[in-house]
Amino acid sequence: MTRKKVVVIGGGFGGAAAAIKARALLGSEHTVTLADRNREVHLCGMNPMLIAGQRDPRRTTRSLGVLGNRGINVINAQVDEIDFKNHALKAGDGRIDYDYLVIAAGAEYDWGATPGARDAYSFYDIASARRLRRRLSRMKRGHISIGVASAPYKCPPAPYETAMILDWFFRQQGNRQDFEITVSTPEPGPVPVAGPDAMSAIMRAFDRKGIQLKTGVGVASVRSDGREVAYSDGSSIGVDVAITIPHHIPAAIVRGSSLIGPSGWVKVNSQTLETSEKDVFAIGDVNAVPMANGKGIPKAGVFASAEGETVGYNIAATINESEPVDFPGEGYCFIGFGGETSALVVGNFLAEPKPEVRLTAPTARGMKSRERFERDWKRFRV
Ligand SMILES: Cc1cc2nc3c(=O)[nH]c(=O)nc-3n(C[C@H](O)[C@H](O)[C@H](O)COP(=O)(O)OP(=O)(O)OC[C@H]3O[C@@H](n4cnc5c(N)ncnc54)[C@H](O)[C@@H]3O)c2cc1C
């Protein structure tokens, strides 16, 4: 039997799941290689709790080197170029040949698209979340804005749950009355993919908690002193802390390549995650898996992971000459309603004629399952 080389770019949710699944199903004559420029990855889903002092960053970090124990060849390197014609990657001075390539390089942030936002605050990467944590822990009063620059962005519920976690945090401190919290989104309401009932439920929770919501506007810029947020409709508000969810773009390795489709993200077959290049798959945040409503499936770790499992399984099935499977499109995102309860946005996102997605009630049990998710993630079980 010919020895096959399976190569994965990126060791986040998607890449790790693809490599683990392929490795588990393939004989030892085949190799599975995972290349990532970082040795460790962070669970960004915990950042909203981290900024409120509810998480220690050490608990939300995992080391990719551990995958070596599972027979995966982990390479700590930046992949600079993909040579589709010769089935090879360029990484520094090295070359990595592949028979099957999985691109799981994620999304990056285009801070330049929102002038002033980077110098203000965010929680969309671990460094900015730590900085925001320090600022919030010293704050006694003021107006905090959480604004989405543009859609799509990672984890659609994140701005809303972050506002509700901050509301809870200030209530715990006994000084909620000294804070104003405003959330803004370019979308028509919170988490539109979950449907009108979910949107109303989140809006009702905002009313109860005294959180203001501005819809249909993206953050256009933040003044250089961080004290004013300007929106895409020309309006602006004065704030003390401007938190921005930045404009997202595909990872540099695919940007401008032939793989990018009309959505601006890597175009894939929604069942198989195949790209326009033979034996090349793209999973997770880097792609756009079209739903029946024309939008892409949410950029979330659970989908990246499920897509990775599908692709890892199917590459092994091709090599082992067994039956492939389709990506089911089912999944969920957590949405915290404060520090003690969590709900789910859950359903079949690829259902026809429209996504079948709903919001569950926020419960303490939901928060427990979130903690379980965190522990499972740490052990590469998700
Ligand atoms: C604040 C926040 C909250 C979130 N909450 C949730 C949640 O509750 N639930 C949920 O499911 N998801 C959540 N997400 C989204 C989730 O984190 C992402 O959807 C998920 O990480 C995407 O996985 P991925 O594998 O596609 O990409 P990533 O996890 O971004 O991994 C990409 C990897 O590729 C590597 N890479 C990129 N380019 C190269 C290159 N050229 N060479 C080598 N390596 C490269 C990077 O170093 C990185 O490790 C949240 C995200 C944020 C920011």
Explain what the structure shows.
The strands form 8 sheets. This protein has a 5-stranded parallel beta sheet, covered by helices on one side. Strands 13-12-11-17 form a 4-stranded parallel beta sheet, with helices on one face. A 3-stranded antiparallel beta sheet has the order 6-7-8, with no helix packed on it. α1 packs parallel to α6. It has 2 domains: 181 residues, 3-Layer(bba) Sandwich (FAD/NAD(P)-binding domain), CATH 3.50.50; 137 residues, FAD/NAD(P)-binding domain (3-Layer(bba) Sandwich), CATH 3.50.50.60. It is an alpha/beta fold. The protein contains 7 helices and 24 strands. Bound molecules: flavin-adenine dinucleotide. Flavin-adenine dinucleotide binds next to α1, β2, α6 and β22.
Structural domains: how many: 2
C-alpha-based Rg, rounded: 21 Å
**In percent terms, what proportion of residues is strand?**
25-35%
User: Treating each run of at least 4 consecutive H or I residues as one helix, how many helices?
Assistant: 7
* Average predicted confidence as pLDDT: 95
Q: Which shape, going by the Cα principal axes?
A: globular
| Distinct small molecules bound, one entry per kind | flavin-adenine dinucleotide
In angstroms, what separates the terminal alpha carbons?
A: 32 Å
Structural class from helices and strands? alpha/beta
Placed side by side, the strands forming the largest sheet appear as: 5-2-1-9-20
Record field, number of beta strands = 24
Instruction: Please outline the major beta sheet.
Output: 5 strands, parallel
* CATH architecture label name of the largest domain: 3-Layer(bba) Sandwich
Q: CATH homologous superfamily of the largest domain?
A: FAD/NAD(P)-binding domain
CATH topology of the largest domain: the name is FAD/NAD(P)-binding domain
Low-confidence stretches: none
